[in-house]
Amino acid sequence: MDTINVTQARNDLFKVMDSVLEGKKTTITSKKGNVVLLSEEEWNEIIETLYVLSDPDTLPAVMEARATPTSELDRMDWRNIF
Question: Is 0.85 surpassed by the pTM of this model?
């Protein structure tokens, strides 16, 4: 993770944005506190993860699916899943 001060961020905003869009998280520091800059795509992934983890019905299903060996997935009839 890159760390820069707010003046550097302001002076190099387009460069900082390009870096973030390429996958680098950036911390911007100031006297008032720090912020973390990340892409919209990454933010949406975080929100989706929080939503899934907060749903008491979904989380057990996700955990069960993660524990299922891939060899069993090959035998599933995916046409009747929904």
Answer: no
